[in-house]
Design goal:
By secondary structure, the protein is of the alpha/beta class.
Length: about 180
Amino acid sequence: MYSINAKNEQEREVIVNAIKEWDRKIGGLQLVEEQNPKASDIQIVFDNLDDDKTGNQYYNFKNKVDEDLTLIPSAGWTQFNFDKKGFIESTKIIISADVIKKGFDDYLIEQIAKHEIGHALGLGHSNNERSLMANLVLEDKTATISECEINGVFAANSWKLIQSKQNPEHPQRIFVIC
């Protein structure tokens, strides 16, 4: 279950589109919206990303590398809450309020949301710069949820999505080779 704290319907719709794509790509996954943020497994909010929340330095957004390539660092952050056994109990995804202030279009905000939702589903960063889960979002290079990310979600959540067990188990694999 997820909740969205957006300032307007357009911001909300961008997040819903990202969630729907994950739902379509992952068989057995159905994320349902919960109106009460405290009751949701995944909270998605637009907020300021500053050092006390992320431990990261502040970056200038939309750093132009060349005419065709824009790097978008620190536009989102996923915070995890773990249970006593080390399983993810809930997550809070923060989409930087700066993405709105700096005029990011819906396409880029949806891309950032898909990346952060990937973290909430158990994915880490990829070492492939063209991957949705790359450490840095590359405009027009990393927008699609690939077969690799799908396989990663299944590996991280095989106890539920493949084996249909009630109790979570730690993944058998630490990483997926793509």
